[in-house]
Amino acid sequence: MGSQQILPGSTLGVLGGGQLGRMFCVAARTMGYRVLVLDPDPLCGAGHIADLHIKADYSDQQALEKMAAECDAITLEFENIPSASVRFIAGKTRVFPGAEALEIAQNRDLEKQFAKNAGLQPVPYFALRQASDLQQAAENVGFPAILKSNTLGYDGKGQFVVNDINELNDAYQQVGKVDCVLEKKINIRCEISAIIARNASAERATFPVSENQHRNGVLHMSIVPARVSAALAGQAVESAAILAEALSYVGILAVEFFVSDDGELYFNEMAPRPHNSGHYTKDACVTSQFEQQVRMMCGLTPGDTRLLSPVVMVNMLGDLWLPDWSGIFSQSNIKLHLYGKTEARPGRKMGHFNVLAEDVESALTVAEDVFNKLSGP
Ligand code: ADP
Ligand code: MG
Question: Does any domain span residue 3?
Answer without folding.
Answer: no
